[in-house]
């Protein structure tokens, strides 16, 4: 069950919207399923109309308006509780139980030992994605005029949702990984601009691909520019030689303003401080990065040409395929609770698929879907306080060679072998989610392999079963993932991947006391 919390100031506007037809007439039969006793005494489960919605809003606002209590930032607390479409639907009685248990645990009711607040739970059919859900609207002013505390309410809602999943027999989801979704209306706005998909999503893949293929920050800037995207630095206050962050935009048609996104608004792991933990860090590299940032900001040609301007050595395909295979072997010994390591592996694998998609898919296809899906595991709710850089096996080399894959071609045997190795890592990530009871994420990865990446494999040359053992294992991983199987985790000593602390950037990061807060 997925909670989504928002806050505001207009109770009437929220309730009228929930009781109305929705933005695309997706609301059907809006009605109350639960609420505070005074409101439920006057309203039953009849279909709501505008007049009923306004009446309910007045009752929800009564304590605030009569007692004059003001809440900074708004007194309206709104939370949707939704199921995955694959879970099916619950009946009104079950949703009512869940809503009451949720509000008791959040401290809105008499169960808190304090005066209750006024609240309602409204159900109005499926979302556009087919999810069964309810909306809870509550005042943050209690009946005695005191305020309900919203301290850590986002985290509390997540923790309570996990507990209610167990209590009510719902699919149990993992609270560790947090994907950053699209904002309401973002998809429609992109369509009006004629974009194939929301720019936030396409830009995240390009940045992820270029970051994985680059060995330093300067190369990253040049690679992003080669994709056709616009990129500009965000300098530290009062400086033009210290880059604290960046923004990217798709190149718009002539006469149209670009839509810019900061790295942190693409994904949590795509902020500049996070990206820097994977690049070579020397004074010369930092100086070169500042020069390339300056050229990008002024729309000038790159200062230098690097690896991005040349085809990689064909022998690197075999080398990096073997390295991805070693990465998979390393993951066998990584504990489920080592979320940072799993996120790191998912980030690199997503980067490899993103690089392949950027090079070969004119419009988003299965490779883009793979990058988007695996990147969700890379989004930790809390990143390690001290960034780490792995010195073990890596999928970054795969990003380098896949960025040079032929556009529109049918692929090579080397690409077929690389796909198997990447699918083997994806299967490991699938098994981790399944063993952690994050069934939603495990099923999404399974569906991705079975229904999308299988088409990519079919278009590539056949790799004989007499290939080296690691390739046979990768093939078995594809079959097992397609069947939804999860091999048993090995027992024995745990040998995690080796790490070394990330060093501080010399020139382009200095001068900012908190470079990690870039958004």
From TrEMBL:
Residues 182-201, 462-519 are annotated as: Disordered. Residues 48-170 form the MobA/VirD2-like nuclease domain. Coiled coil: none annotated. It holds the Pfam family Relaxase. It comes from the Bacteria. InterPro entries: Endonuclease_MobA/VirD2 (IPR005094). Residues 183-201 have a biased composition (Basic and acidic residues). This is Relaxase. It comes from Sinomonas humi.
């Amino acid at each position: 069950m997925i909670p989504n919390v928002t806050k505001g100031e207009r109770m009437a506007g929220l309730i009228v919207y929930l009781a109305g037809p929705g933005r695309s007439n997706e609301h059907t039969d809006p009605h109350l399923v639960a609420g505070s006793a005074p409101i439920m005494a006057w309203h039953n489960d009849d279909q709501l109309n505008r007049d009923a919605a306004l009446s309910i809003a007045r009752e929800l606002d009564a304590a605030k308006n009569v007692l004059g209590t003001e809440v900074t930032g708004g007194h309206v607390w709104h939370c949707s509780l939704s199921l995955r479409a694959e879970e099916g639907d619950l009946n009104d009685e079950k949703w009512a139980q869940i809503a009451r248990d949720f509000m008791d645990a959040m401290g809105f009711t008499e169960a808190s030992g304090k005066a209750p607040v006024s609240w309602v739970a409204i159900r109005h059919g499926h979302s556009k994605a087919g999810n069964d859900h309810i909306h809870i609207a509550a005042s943050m002013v209690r009946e005695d005029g005191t305020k309900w505390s919203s301290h850590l309410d986002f985290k509390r809602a997540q923790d309570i949702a996990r507990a209610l999943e167990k209590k009510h027999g719902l699919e149990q989801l993992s609270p560790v990984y947090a994907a950053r979704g699209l904002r309401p209306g973002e998809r429609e706005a992109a369509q009006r601009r004629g974009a194939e998909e929301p720019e936030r999503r396409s830009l995240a893949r390009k940045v992820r691909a270029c970051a994985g293929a680059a060995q330093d920050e300067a190369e990253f800037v040049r690679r992003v520019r080669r994709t056709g995207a616009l990129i500009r630095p965000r300098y530290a206050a009062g400086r033009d030689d210290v880059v604290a962050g960046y923004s990217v935009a798709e190149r718009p048609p002539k006469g149209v303003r670009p839509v810019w996104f900061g790295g942190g608004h693409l994904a949590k792991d795509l902020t500049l401080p996070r990206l820097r933990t994977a690049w070579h860090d020397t004074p010369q590299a930092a100086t070169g990065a500042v020069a390339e940032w300056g050229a990008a900001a002024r729309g000038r040609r790159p200062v230098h040409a690097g690896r991005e301007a040349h085809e990689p050595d064909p022998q690197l395909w075999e080398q990096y395929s073997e390295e991805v295979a070693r990465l998979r072997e390393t993951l066998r010994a990584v504990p489920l609770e080592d979320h940072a390591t799993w996120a790191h592996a998912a980030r690199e694998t997503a980067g490899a698929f993103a690089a392949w998609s950027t090079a070969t898919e004119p419009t988003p296809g299965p490779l883009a879907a793979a990058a988007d899906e695996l990147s969700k595991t890379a989004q930790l709710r809390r990143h390690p306080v001290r960034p780490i850089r792995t010195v073990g096996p890596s999928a970054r080399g795969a990003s380098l060679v896949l960025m040079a894959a032929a556009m529109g071609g049918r692929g090579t045997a080397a690409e077929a072998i690389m796909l198997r190795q990447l699918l083997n890592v994806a299967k490991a990530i699938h098994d981790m989610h399944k063993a952690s009871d994050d069934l939603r994420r495990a099923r999404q990865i399974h569906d991705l392999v079975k229904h999308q990446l299988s088409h990519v494999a079919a278009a590539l040359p056949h790799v004989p079963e007499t290939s080296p053992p690691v390739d046979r294992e990768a093939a078995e991983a594809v079959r097992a993932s397609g069947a939804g199987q999860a091999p048993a985790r090995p027992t024995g000593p745990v040998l995690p991947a080796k790490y070394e602390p990330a060093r501080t950037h010399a020139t382009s990061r200095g001068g900012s006391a908190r470079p990690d807060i870039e958004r």
